[in-house]
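Q: Here's a chain of 294 amino acids. Please give me its 3D structure as tokens.
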Amino acid sequence: MRAFRNLCCSFPALVALAFLACSITQAQTAPAAQTPPLPHAKQIHLKHVLVIGQTKGWEHDSVSDAMAAIYNLGKESGLWDTTMRTDTKSITKKDLGSNAKNLGYFDVIVFTSTTGELDLDDSQKADMLSFIHEDGKGFVGIHAALDTNYNWPEYGEMIGGWFDQHPWMTFNAPILNEDPSFPAVRHLPGAFVKYDEIYQPKAWSRDKVNVLLSLDPAKLNYDNNPRIHRADHDFPVAWSKSYGKGRVFYSTLGHTEESWDDPDIRTMYFEAVKWALGLTEGSIASHPRPTPSH
């Protein structure tokens, strides 16, 4: 009987303990309150690339594709961030203010099928050349970058020459890989075909560049073609070179919009930018022209 009374007396306490235990269990299993995540600071990439798509002459439909490709390649790899401009405001070492970036911020300039005489005054031209020549930064020229700045002799010296017709227009170009050790072309076979528009250069010399890709002269049609101006039938498709302390890469590939969906082309320019940034090594030494195939 005493035990029963003791149990009755302690019953309220037992109920209270049970309620407390239940509350603790519910608190432990209840989902945490949803709070907004803290804002993330902007990711700082390793390098900074300036892409220029200004056209003062022929406007290629592929300019946007090329600009987007360089942007996406940098973002996907995490190796660089990209500033895209269709003007030349950023090509200067002057302080632009208002958070605008000048050449002091960038490591490589990419010209994506620029054409004609770009909007550059004398001080901008000097700054761009010193950016490459003295500062040891990089330059990558895509397709019509060779069809640019004819009235600026130092530009032709820097990039390696100028456009002088495309003898076969857009065609299935037979291409030879002359330097398979170079990062931008090592993924390509020794001989291959690409549907593209191949430029013929003038004021260009094999002795001043490292030819990476070239047209196979034995597989070209020369009949009744007044646009062929090179008597040596030496038609480079891509090359690397130095300009002072800086690195320069150029390729005529990338004329069509579809070419920018080609993994071979995307990989070539991805590796070209990496090389121009100094992230990889590749030769700039000239070499003899390969013996044509038969």
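Q: Can you summarize the key feature?
A: Confidence is low (pLDDT under 50) at residues 1-31.
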